[in-house]
Design brief:
The complex is a heterodimer of chains A (232) and B (704).
Chain A lengths: L16 H16 L22 E6 L41 E8 L5 E13 L5 E2 L11 E2 L4 E7 L2 E6 L6 E12 L4 E9 L9 E2 L4 E2 L3 E13 L2
Antiparallel strand pairs in A: 1-12, 2-9, 3-8, 3-12, 4-5, 6-7, 6-9, 10-11
Chain B lengths: L3 E5 L16 E5 L2 E2 L6 E2 L3 E4 L17 E8 L7 E7 L2 E6 L6 E6 L13 E5 L2 E5 L6 E3 L10 H5 L2 E3 L10 E2 L1 E2 L18 E2 L2 E2 L24 E13 L11 E7 L6 E2 L2 E3 L7 E9 L6 E7 L6 E3 L28 E4 L2 E6 L3 E7 L13 E3 L7 E7 L2 E6 L3 E7 L2 E8 L11 E3 L3 E6 L2 E6 L9 E3 L6 H4 L11 E5 L4 E6 L9 E6 L4 E6 L3 E6 L5 E5 L13 E5 L6 E4 L2 E4 L5 E5 L11 E11 L2 E11 L7 E8 L25 E7 L4 E2 L2 E7 L4 E10 L12
The chains are: A mainly beta (232), B mainly beta (704).
């Protein structure tokens, strides 16, 4: 804060401690109270800035550990090799998955200083969509059935608060990208990535009875996550 | 003969009426109150806003009189503090970011106030400031963010006119080209400039959410129908204010038999004026007249809007036309923020009408957002928000507005006192709102809550001889502010026929008394975040090239500014400080006294010299020759001082409370006063007078 003269030492004037202190205190206050809005022009350079002073980036490849060769492949709900149809992915089946939001990946961002946090989650998805017609859903209409929506819902949560949510990919094979940004208080931030598949309908195929295999309903792979925190 | 003593242990403020209280003073000039000892101190002065001598008066070098000044604090801590001021018809931002220290012209060509007009009035509204002057369109300024060296075009974008100067033009409606359901037509993604064919099949299974999208009825019968919708638009400003609604635009189309599609009409929407951040689209139901909200276009760039919503889903009715009208006061003179509403006077056309904005929306005014002030008080001269009241100063009365939006009520507090100096208004702790009236300085104390009453206190009664010097015609140019740093209310008024302030009247809270200041060229004044008073020079380069100009700070420096001598900045001389005691009658004026000593109770300030003169019986001539004395302990070794104190030997000192006894010889008198005068540092706590009286009475009055 800008200060002006609190005490002016002049000839023949008492060497008064308190008067000196008044001016000294103001000078010190000015220096310690320097705000970034008052910095001299060009007094800061990139080289002087500590790493993470203004922003920090975290990158993740979810599910890259655990099951072998699953780089970026979802393992949160993953059928065992024993039960999966050998001609399909070892992905999500209705034998393992009931419904609802399931955490695919969760991490804690340490060193977050408060400010904007942007998270981008991108990857690929497979979806069993050809059994998406539910017969006899409408009794008197012609045709009597109707389509059953099928998609891979995706959402991002910060500290258990939903930041962004989308219906998600609805094609047999698709790539997706979901981006969320929010202002977050300082401190470690828990980032949670979740997905949700429609529950099984009455006409959905869930088991290959002949082969005795559980049929794939959805699968995620090639997932990557980047979080960018900015606080200055 | 044993003498008698009259003690004034704590010296008080000025009192010009006779007879005077013993603790009062006849004159206290250029003194403040020391915060440690409560003594009167001569440690005052003013200095350039930019203390460096090297920059001289830059960047204010070419500026004349500064008419108005406002310090805008946009963040806590005072880090983002913007100084706005007007000079020569231009509104400037003194831009200090990154030590730029440059002037940025925000607006030029504004009216320069005459000597009898008050300068622009500023009111902070959030991180913005509203500026009114009664001549030009009120401005809204938000002087941040700006780049480090803002180009003129960018800088001027922080400033815009307040309110809506008119409704938006009606949106242009593109015709709807109907298509046949039989054909395999598709929605076009381009337009030719004449029409569009954005359509939605009404068949429920054809698209998702058929109940939401598309306009126009699905006609399942044999006969076609005519579809008619009306659209209108309103602007939304960066303050969230919504403009008046535009005129309507009709879009009609026929759906012949067998053509059952719904359509998505397209509008050409107008671009809003500066400050517009969004456009709001309204529409009617089919063949309806009531407007409903359709959507916001959240920018001020796009020119086309596709009315995608199905009219059956319209549910939020558009506000009535009277809820936002054209800005009613383009010539507002004064303004204030109260209960989150911006209050403005009606300007020269309707000076006794008080207008107010919607809460939080300074650009938006309802058609009934005004109060006509009655009671013959005249035009509004000033507004001041104080606690739970908005105090309305009028030419011949003071009214008070209470309540909350939209239920405001006004009542008159007094018709005997008024204020025509809007820049003299300020709240002073423990006193209320202090202001300059034509006949002196007053304080409006109290309130209207909890049984309290407003009371007008003649605060300036002790210095009436000073305030009667006011140039009444130029009272509007008086300026005042309370200084938390000095704990004093400063009022600078034009006197003796001058058209600009020349006399400072300072009310010291600790003393509950006044002193005056001379030599402070204050044209306008405000305080910074830390309580320092800063002021704009009242003359500037009107006095000639290289004259002192720009913004200055009232501080403890021992100089009256500075001048440029031989192309170099030279610090000015210290102000002359005068303390003149009251006229003492020692209890009975008709008994003659012989004053022998004046003993000043002082805090030592060093080997500085002070002159003392003594007077008697209201005579102008000095009854006692000048006595010069030092501010050192009289019967102890002198305390070390600068210039002679030796480092390593002299130690830091505390000032000592000592008596300095000065002999005077004024012979017999009925009344006695003394005067001390100096340009050095002094601290005066009190004094005592030693005198003898033989009981001699004054002789009988002269026979006619």
């Amino acid at each position: 804060m800008k200060q002006w003269t609190q005490h002016e030492a002049r000839p023949a004037q008492l060497v008064e401690a308190d008067q000196f202190n008044d001016q000294h205190r103001e000078f010190r206050g000015q220096m310690t109270g320097l705000d970034r809005a008052q910095y001299p022009a060009d007094c800061l350079t990139e080289l002087m800035i500590e790493a993470g002073a203004r922003h920090k980036v975290w990158t993740f490849v979810p599910w890259e550990t655990g099951a072998a060769s699953t780089a970026g492949e979802q393992v949160a709900v993953m059928e065992s090799q024993l039960n999966a149809d050998p001609g399909q992915f070892r992905g999500l089946t209705y034998q393992l998955y009931g419904s609802g939001w399931t955490t695919a990946f969760e991490t804690s961002l340490t060193g977050f200083r408060g400010g904007s946090l942007l998270t981008e989650w991108f990857g690929n998805s497979a979806l069993q969509i050809w059994w998406t017609w539910t017969e006899n859903a409408r009794q008197d209409s012609v045709p009597p059935g109707r389509q059953a929506d099928r998609y891979v819902g995706l959402r991002i949560l910060y500290n258990n608060v939903v930041v962004v949510e989308r219906l998600g990919p609805a094609k047999a094979m698709d790539c997706f990208r979901i981006v969320g940004e929010s202002q977050v208080p300082s401190g470690d931030v828990t980032v949670t990535l979740q997905f949700s598949i429609e529950a099984a309908g009455p006409d959905d195929a869930i088991t290959d009875v002949g082969a005795g295999a559980h049929l794939l309903q959805a699968h995620l792979w090639g997932n990557r996550v980047v979080c960018v925190g900015r606080w200055r | 003969m044993k003498g008698q003593t009259l003690q004034v242990r704590i010296a008080g403020g000025m009192e010009e009426t006779l007879p005077q209280q013993p603790h009062s003073a006849t004159l206290i000039e250029n003194m403040t109150v020391d915060r440690r000892t409560q003594a009167f101190s001569s440690r005052i002065g003013f200095e350039k806003y930019r203390p460096s001598a090297a920059v001289k008066f830059a960047p204010f070098t070419s500026l004349g009189r500064i008419d108005s000044l406002f310090v805008l604090n946009q963040t806590s801590g005072g880090a983002r503090q913007s100084i706005l001021f007007e000079s020569g018809g231009s509104l400037y931002l003194y831009y200090e970011v990154g030590q730029e220290s440059v002037l940025v012209t925000l607006v030029s060509g504004r009216a320069v106030p005459t000597a009898t007009e008050s300068a622009s009035v500023y009111a902070q509204f959030g991180d913005r400031v509203i500026i009114t002057n009664g001549q030009d369109s009120p401005l809204l300024v938000r002087p941040w963010p700006l780049p480090k060296t803002p180009p003129l075009v960018v800088a001027q974008q922080v400033c815009r006119s307040l309110g809506w100067s008119g409704p938006p033009p009606a949106p242009g409606g593109l015709a709807v080209s109907t298509v046949s359901t039989v054909s395999t037509g598709a929605s076009t993604n381009t337009y030719t400039g004449a029409s569009t064919s954005n359509w939605y099949p009404a068949y429920a299974q054809a698209i998702s959410f058929p109940g939401i999208f598309g306009m126009g009825g699905h006609n399942a019968g044999d006969d076609g129908i005519e579809v008619n919708f009306q659209f209108a638009v309103a602007f939304i400003s960066d303050t969230g204010s919504v403009s008046p609604r535009s005129l309507e635009t009709d879009i009609d189309w026929d759906i012949p038999s067998g053509k059952g599609y719904r359509y998505c009409p397209t509008l050409r929407i107008p671009i809003g004026p500066e400050g517009t951040v969004a456009r709001r689209i309204y529409g009617t139901l089919e063949d309806g007249s009531q407007f409903y909200f359709i959507a916001d276009v959240r920018n001020n760039v796009e020119e086309l809007f596709h009315a995608f919503r199905r009219s059956a889903s319209f549910s939020v009715a558009a506000p009535a036309q009277v809820e936002s009208v054209v800005f009613p006061v383009p010539y507002a003179r004064v303004c204030a923020v109260f209960k989150d509403c911006l209050f403005l006077d009606g300007g020269r056309d309707s000076g006794n009408v008080l207008f107010y904005s919607n809460p939080g929306q300074p650009d938006q005014y309802g058609g009934s957002n005004y109060i006509t002030l009655t009671g013959g008080g005249g035009s509004i001269t000033g507004l001041y928000a104080h606690y739970n009241n908005l105090i309305i100063f009028r030419e011949n009365s003071i009214d008070v507005l209470t309540g909350t939006y939209p239920s405001f009520t006004v009542q008159t507090v007094t018709k005997q006192v008024s204020c025509r100096s809007p820049h003299s208004l300020d709240a002073v702790p423990g006193l209320g709102v202090v202001f300059l009236a034509q006949d002196g300085i007053y304080a409006l104390t109290g309130g209207l809550d909890g049984g309290a009453v407003f009371e007008v206190v003649p605060l300036g009664a002790p210095i009436q001889k000073q305030t009667v010097r006011l140039t009444k015609e130029c009272a509007a140019r008086a300026v005042g502010r309370y200084s938390p740093q000095e704990r004093a209310y400063h009022l600078y008024i034009p006197v003796d026929g001058d058209d600009r302030p020349g006399l400072g009247c300072v009310f010291h809270l600790e003393k509950k008394g006044w002193s005056i200041r001379v030599g402070f060229p204050v044209g306008c004044i405000d305080r910074t975040y830390n309580g320092t008073l800063i002021f704009g020079h009242h003359t500037g380069v009107e006095a000639g090239a290289d004259s002192p100009a720009g913004v200055f700070a009232v501080t403890a420096t021992r100089a009256l500014g500075g001048t440029i001598v031989a192309d170099a900045y030279s610090v000015g001389t210290p102000p002359t400080t005068i303390y003149e005691s009251c006229w003492h009658d020692f209890g009975d004026a008709q008994v003659k006294k012989q004053v022998q000593y004046v003993t000043l109770w002082v805090q030592t300030t060093g080997s500085v010299t002070v002159k003392l003169k003594a007077y008697k019986d209201f005579e102008y001539t000095v009854a006692n020759t000048d006595e010069r004395f030092l501010y050192q302990p009289p019967d102890q070794a002198s305390q070390p001082v600068y210039n002679t104190g030796i480092v390593g030997t002299a130690v830091w000192q505390d000032p000592r409370l000592v008596p300095i006894r000065i002999p005077v010889a004024v012979q017999s008198c009925s009344w006695f006063k003394f005067r001390i005068e100096t340009t050095d540092d002094i601290l005066l706590v009190g004094y005592e007078l030693d005198y003898v009286s033989r009981g001699t009475m004054v002789i009988a009055g002269k026979r006619a």
